[in-house]
Amino acid sequence: MKRQLPLILVFVFGTLMVIQYFVPHENSETVKGFLLDWIVIIGIFALALGLWSLVQVSVAKINSRKENWEYPLVTLASLVMMMFFGFTAITEGASLWSYFLAITVFLIALWMFLQGFMGQAANRNMKLLSGLGLLIVFSLLAIFDSSWEFKFYTAEGLTNQMFVHFFDYIMIPLQATMFALLAFFITSASYRAFRARNLLATLLLIAALIVMLRFTPGPWGEYLAKTSAWVMNVPNLAAQRAIVIGIGLGIVATALKVILGIERGYMGKG
Amino acid sequence: MNFFSKLMQLDRRWVYLLLVIVCLSAYYADFTVPTIVENETKAIYDFIEALEPGEIIFVAVDYDPSSQAELHPMTYALVEHAFRKDLKVIFTALSQNGPGMVDQALRDLTDSLKLPKTYNGIFYEGKEIVNGVDYTFLGYKPYYAIVITAMGQDYRILFPSDYYGTPLDSIPMMKRVHNYDDISLLVDISSGSITDAWISYGQGKFDFPLALGLTGVMTAQYYPFLQSKQIMGLMGGLLGAAQYEHLADNPGLAKDGMRVQLPAHLLIILFIIIGNVGYLVTRYRERKI
Amino acid sequence: MRSYLEKMKASRVLLLVLVCSLLLVSFSTSLLAQTDSDTDTPADSIPAIAAPAQVTDLKAFDTDNDHGHSITIEWTLSADDGAGAKSVISYEIMRWEPFVRDSVMAARDSLGWVQARINKFEKEIPLAEESLDEVLTGQPFLDSLSFLVAYDEKDTSFVLTSEYVDKTLRDTIAAMKRDLPVLKVRAPLLPARFDSLLILLPKEYGKYPDATIGRFDSVGTAVSGVTSHENSSAVDSRSPGFIPDFIDYYYRIDVQTSDPNIRTTSEIVGPVQSSGQWFNSGLVPVLIAILVFTILTMIFVQLAKKGMDLYVRPLAGIEAVDEAIGRATEMGRPILYVLGLGSAADIATIASFTILGRVAKKVAEYQTELNVPCYDPIVMAVAQEVVKSAFIDAGRPEAYKDDIVHFITNSQFAYVGAVNGIIMRDLPATNVYMGKFFAESLILAETGAVAGSIQIAGTDEIPQIPFFFVACDYTLIGEELFAASAYLGREPELLGSLKAQDYAKAVLLASAIIGILLINIFPEYGETFKSWFEVID
Amino acid sequence: METVSIWIAAILTLGIFSFLYKDNPLYKACEALFVGVSAAYWAIVFYFDNIYKKFYEGAVTAEEPDYFLWIGAILGLLFLTRLIPNIGWVSRWPMALIVGATAGLWMVGYFVSNAMNQIGNTISNIIVRDAATGFIAWGETFGTLVILVGVLSGLVYFFFSKEHKGVFGATAKVGTWFLMVTFGASFGYTVMSRMSLLIGRVDFLLGDWLHILR
Question: Which residue in A200, B199, D25, D168 is a FRET match for C285, CA 20 to 30 A apart?
């Protein structure tokens, strides 16, 4: 039962989707729509699982007090803060100070709980109690402070100015810079790897050089531009097509193995 | 450890540092990128250069903000050239977010054209370009294939009035201007499949001179149309834009971009060459021993 | 008497002359006016066009191999399209529309619009009220209600009167004002009820071709030179321009010129009904190919189980895996396994799971450390399962900890940043990248190279293969990723299916060669042969 | 506020770039912050898009609740049984559904688009004639021949169960040449767009932050 039922499910749903492909009728599309919806919904529950894993690993690292244990604190704090921003709406025109106070109280309360649950037994109760106290203070703030409120049913948090700021000035620059690292890595990779070790490496090198030299000043510029267009249109197209066909067959074969239960590695083959 | 094997083990941080230095000095150093002009770009420039004042060119702006970095420089360079030559320009934007692009370009160009400037040794007085006299912006309509076909009969069919709501018949420059027969050149600056429609539905049916400005990635696949003479010119990516700016003696966004791109590419090529020299020399020496 | 007559005559003649001159004057002025208006038009307006020839051979039929809600119309070009007067710009596809369908649709859309307003935010209550008034007093809505009421008299089962609609909506708004749970109050008003009306009413109230209750309406345009059009809608009955199945439709095509007033109407075709099909006959070649593939796989799996000798050529990237795990053990450093950015719904990720299983088993045997940071939570859960089972298989269940496989974040570059951190801090002896990778491929591979790790990569994302190829020690190119699990496990079943895969490849290769020969020697057969492969997805 | 924000963004930018020199506390802090903020960001977006809009509005508060969505929710709950040691194996059911359904979903689709259609594209006339004159266009004919050789030899390279020896091996070798040219060319083509990313960041640092752009 433990091992057989999942395999049967895979076979049933796999075959269903294969048949679905050949049936244009709208009922078949409905079935497909539902399966895809379910996967999305399962994904949300899984996300909770993922966040739990992130918290667990971070807490374990903090607890171990090994090298770099401080950084997971930053992760946890920013995680909690961003979540808080996403679920709260700030009243228009209100001062942000009480909002920040509430977050600070909340974060300290969580920190106390963390210490209480994970730390040494010595002053555990003390910490738990102060955590609880702070949590009560926070709840009171949440109820009586009119400058902000929790919003779980309307997406107002997405337009909360702090949420937007964190997105614009923290996520975006970090993301863009991480991406921009590629400019450096593409340089060092070409320095390290493009060496005429053998025929194949030489071909790789020459193709890259032709394409990179295509707009350098010099009498070869225009000629190389034409050549690189040809390289992209002819040999490149040919090889890409071969790879695409190969991938297509690989995917079909893998999917078939999965549906037929030949390949069970994804479920921990026993 | 000799020089070459040291070179082979060069710490990558030197590579990074050099890239930073090259980039920053490209920003501040006073130099111009020597540009080799390809015939495809020159063809467009020469064509516009040969037009008489008062002739009309049609610029189809078919891209949106995502490819603006590559294509805006082309629009700027080409349209400014046309305005300085006292040509008149009709714009359309057949991609959904295109009108914003035209708007922005027109605003910037109106400002820069107010200044007097010298290009290729010829002095041009600054001038005010006027909507309706110097240019007309027809705007956006969905289903580009139909729009392109219908404009072969008359612009008024789908654009009875321009983007700003003025009836075409009351726009001075559109008097006696009906369809592709009345324009001297059509330039499509595009980041997508609209180009194919301009070639097959537009040029293929109504046979007007067509030039293309495309993103770098697209360029390669449109060379065949040059050979079959369906298009008279082609600008590819930032590079094509830089060539046009060079021809028009009007360095702008593209040349700025190329000022960093070119040294960076050269640096990479230099590293590849150094790496290979080092590799070949050490291998040669190892063999000798 | 005579004089009287003469008098009479004189007056009559006078009258006649008067009337005649009046007529003449009015006629001539009107004539003048007409010529005036002619000269008024600007000289540069569109030149006059003769009406183009109509389209011929008009056909309308249910679109084949589809989900329904679609009618295909085909015609032969107008004689003036590209030839003759060359005046054709486009073809307008006209469908006969009973007015009742229009009004039901309009009523439904406007009610839907009001409802959307109500659903949204409380602060928009005044807005909602305003739009409600707009709709309830609007002509299309009133039209439709009169139909509904008429329909109601016949069949009492359907109750949807103006009072009812009005009341429901106003109740809802009132409830919102009092902060009552609105969501339940608004339930009785179902746009879905209109959907059945859309089908039922036209049958009763919109019989073709009574011009008093219907007209031809444009449903699409085709550019000149085009000879077919698909009049289709989405399956969702709430989508704009919805086309219900099993309803009679009538079509005609108008040939349009540059002058909107000059157009030629074709003959009318119909009735035609749309419906969905249960088998896409265009996919027969695919079905056959898939069946052949499946049978081949089953045969070779059976043969392999019976002990058939199955050769596989060496694959450097795979052989490196064993070696790399050994190296990690010697150096006492961990192994990093990255599953990429794919979700559990990507076959590349599924292939990667099986490779992870083999790697984890060896890792457990060698007692090396393993680290699997994840981008997707479902992938994380599956990977945990895979690694756990592998450890159990290797007889070391106690070595398994849940944090071997852990989630980081599902933001591409944050994930990459974190993995980079892991690579630089833990200095893994080996990094394995298998699955779907995007721009981050080179960031990971270069960082790994700095850390001095042996790197093995495999992906089916073609644009990323070059970067892995350049920066990693071993790269599985495209299909090799999918073959890897068979190599690692060496189980006869998997090797058998690899053999089947090769046979399928041989068949494709042979068909390509046959096709090329045919198309160059016997173009007609060649085109037919080619068409079997050009299946539209 | 604006200035402070730009300073923060600039420091974060430098923090990430500092990784190029070596791993350091600033990078570690940036990385930790990035992970936390992005995980929360996506969780929030998923929550409002999926839990709230799709599930809650679709299956709970809708006029005609979509009861099928509840099955999804139940499957999701089953998935969470992973956290409970003794019945953790139940979470394999939703996994099986996901894996099975996607295997079936992609199988035929990829076969059609990747295998059949590509073979269809390969079947073409080798000899290209000039449209205007009708003479053989030698350049393009050469091109189609090269494409043909490239596709066929590339496919031969991907055979796993036959030893790459003799004619077969030679063909596979030609295939690898094509692969190399492709990899080199794609690599070279990408350099430009990657440099643009760097230019974007430098623009931000010198312009928006330091205001010393020429």
Answer: D168
Contact with chain C for residue A164, Cβ under 8 A: no
Q: What pLDDT does C213 receive?
A: 72
Please name the residue of chain C whose CA is at the shortest distance from the CA of residue A263. C494
Nearest to B149 among C44, C45, C90 (CB): C90
Residue of A nearest to B283 (CA): A197
Confidence at B256, pLDDT banded by 50, 70, 90: confident
Q: Which of D16, D32, D188 sits opposite A177 (nearest CB)?
A: D16
Is there a contact between D131 and B228 if contact means CB atoms under 8 Å apart? yes
| List of chains touching B (3+ CB pairs within 8 A) | A, C, D
Both C168 and C267 in one domain: the answer is yes
Count of domains observed in chain C: 3
Does residue D149 lie in a domain region?
yes
C2 assigned to some structural domain? no
- The amino acid sitting at C383 is A
Domain range for D169: 124-214
State whether the Cα torsion B196-B202-B208-B214 is positive or negative.
negative
CB contacts of A79 in chain D (<8 Å) are 35-37, 39-40
Query: How large a percentage of chain C has pLDDT more than 90?
Result: 37
Residues C303 and C391 in one domain: no
- Domain at C338, CATH number: 3.40.50
Q: Do B275 and A226 touch (CB under 8 A)?
A: no
**Residue D173 counted as domain residue:** yes
At D53-103, the pLDDT tens digits run: 778 877 777 666 778 888 988 999 998 998 888 888 888 889 899 889 888
What's the whole-number average pLDDT of chain C? Answer: 80
Q: Which pLDDT score, from 0 to 100, does residue D24 have?
A: 94
B66 touches C: beta carbon within 8 Å: no
Nearest to C516 among D37, D148, D183 (CB): D148
Of D18 and D86, which is predicted with more confidence? D18
Mean pLDDT computed over B63-68: 79
Q: Do B33 and A195 touch (CB under 8 A)?
A: no
> pLDDT averaged over chain D?
88
| Spans of all domains in chain B | 35-261
Number of domains in chain D: 1
Fold of B35-261: Rossmann fold (3.40.50)
- ipTM score: 0.87
Does residue C486 sit in the same domain as residue C413?
A: yes
The reply to whether C244 and C303 lie within a common domain is no
C447 and C526 in a single domain? The answer is no
Quickly count: other Cβ atoms within 10 Å of residue D183's Cβ. Answer: 25
Q: Which residues of chain A have pLDDT under 70?
A: 1, 119-121, 268-270
Tell me the residue range of the domain where C413 lies.
Answer: 316-490
Its pTM stands at 0.84
Q: Are C402 and A56 inside 8 Å of each other by CB? A: yes
Size of interface B-C (CB pairs under 8 A): 32
Domain boundaries, chain A: 1-66, 70-178, 179-267
Reported as a single tens digit per residue, the pLDDT across D134-159 is 788 888 899 999 999 999 999 999 99
